[in-house]
Every structure is written in C-alpha cells, then in structure tokens.
Amino acid sequence: MNNKDITAVITSFKSETKILNCVKSLGKDFKIIIIENSNDKKLKEKLEKEYPNIKCILSDKNLGYAKGNNLGLTMVNTKYALIINPDAEVQNQAIDNFFLTANNKPNFAIIAPFIQEKFNKDLSMNKKNGIFEVKNVKGFAMFLNLEQCKDVGFFDENFFIYFEEIDFCRRLIKKNKKIFLDTNIKINHAGGTSHDESINHEMEKSRNWHWMWSTFYFHYKHYGYFFALIKILPKFLSAILKTCFFKFISNKEKKDIYYCRFNGILNSILMRKSWYRPKIN
C-alpha cells in the first residue's frame, strides 16, 4: 500500500486561517478533496494553485458536516479515505503508521488517531501504546476503509453537525464492523476552532442550536421518542430559565446563545428538520 491508496476529505466553512495549516501537514503526496461550504472562491484558487493534489468544491449552500463529507466521499476512488477537520494537523509518520495498521487489520471499518486530551478517559492507564478496538471515535479525524463502510451509507445527513460520527460508528458496530483507535497515529486537533475568530458569536449560537437538536435526534433514532424526551428535558428547562435570566439582566449575547439552545431542542422535539444556519455574510 502507498499514498495512492488514500484520499483526504475536508469539509470547511469560513476556515481559511485553519485549513492552510491542515493541508500543509497533509502535504502533496496524495489527493485531497475539500468541500468549501462558505463558497470562498479566493480560497479555492489559492489552494488549487499551491497544491496540485487538491480539488476544492464550492457548494451552493452550507451543507453542514455530514452532507459535506458524504459529497466528498462520492468523489473518492481510492481504497481508503481520511475524514479530517480543517483545524486538525497530521503529525510526522501518521499516514505511514496508518498503512502499517491497515495492513495488520485489513478488515477494519475505521481507524482513528490517538486523542491525547481524552487519553485517561478512553483507555485504561495500563494500555499506553498500541491498537485497541473501540465502539466509537471522535470525528475530527477518521481513516475509513470504504469497502467496509459503503453498505452502512456513511453519515446520516439529517445531522447538520454533531453526533453524526457517533451515529455512524453505532451503525457500523451493529453490522459487526471493526473500529480501532491507534495510539501510534498522532493528529493534533485544536477543537471547536475550524472557523475564523471574527464569526465566533454567530458560530457559538449555531453550535448550541445544533448540539441540542442533534442530541435529541440521536437518542430518538436509537432509543425512541420517550427516551430522547427524558434525556433532553433537563437541558430544555435549563435553557428556558437561562434565556429569561440573561434577558432580565440585559446580557444579550448570553441570552441569544441560550435561546438558540432552547430553540434547537424545541425544533427537535417537534420533529422538525435541522434548519438553523449561522447568519454570516
């Protein structure tokens, strides 16, 4: 196996300051497909001029993470794909180490990199190095074996963002597919900073709306409506109280955020689609 066997897929939105470091870390040795959800023509020109291995697709609208990645995956014709966030950077030997693991575990569905900040939670202290079978992984970077994944259908496009990778992993596990975490594959992830800082507030409102919507939808999908309602109810009541409190003390920024949390939950409970989009020019 070599670099011709893998394609990287990146879904971006207002991510110019982050994505440049991401693609630099990936290099020019294999194909990279970028789904650019903010329709940034200058970014497309800049990336494709500097990196002949990049194909940047401008979407007509903000497709979100699940649908954007699915679109990118339809264009992949290699054996493997790396789904990676714009605010992630591949460390030295990460790709080579992936191929070593893929050779040793040929029937894998997903191989994920070591998540350093979550190490003590994800692995017991006596398992510091190696390859471990797990039930789900974080979505910032996932190596996919496309042959093993295709019958599951990749990401559920009802999710705009959040929980789509957990749902994907759950569906793979139900099909008896194998998911591994490899501590020898290192990929840095800033976390929650894929976008430019200038739009932080709008993105924070969007994050809160979609986190709540996706929380309910995930539990509804896998456990039923009543379970999802019980799961979300404390967050729903908390969002109402905090919206009222921050409105009372005239803190508009916090009020807007908690109103988005409330509104995301309400729309999910009412079984409405995930419609909210950040209001950015």
CATH homologous superfamily descriptor of the largest domain: Spore Coat Polysaccharide Biosynthesis Protein SpsA, Chain A
Low-confidence stretches: 116-126
Reading the helices and strands in chain order gives: EHEHEHEEHEHEEHHEHHH
Terminal Cα span: 44 Å
Based on Cα principal axes, name the global outline.
Answer: globular
Q: Report the CATH C-level class of the largest domain.
A: Alpha Beta
Mean pLDDT: 90
Which class best fits the helix and strand makeup?
alpha/beta
The fraction of residues assigned to DSSP E strands is 15-25%
Number of helices: 10
Annotation, overall tally of beta strands: 9
Main β-sheet description: 9 strands, mixed
- Count of individual domains: 2
Helix content: 40-55%
What's the CATH architecture of the largest domain? Alpha-Beta Complex
Evaluate the radius of gyration: 19 Å
CATH names the topology of the largest domain as Spore Coat Polysaccharide Biosynthesis Protein SpsA, Chain A
Per-chain topology:
Blueprint (H helix, E strand, L loop, with lengths): L5 E7 L3 H11 L4 E6 L4 H10 L3 E5 L5 H11 L5 E5 L3 E3 L3 H11 L3 E7 L4 H4 L8 E3 L7 E5 H4 L14 H11 L3 E12 L10 H24 L1 H24 L3 H18 L12
Parallel strand pairs: 1-2, 1-4, 2-3, 6-9
Antiparallel strand pairs: 4-8, 5-9, 6-8, 7-9
Helix pairs in contact: 8-9, 8-10, 9-10
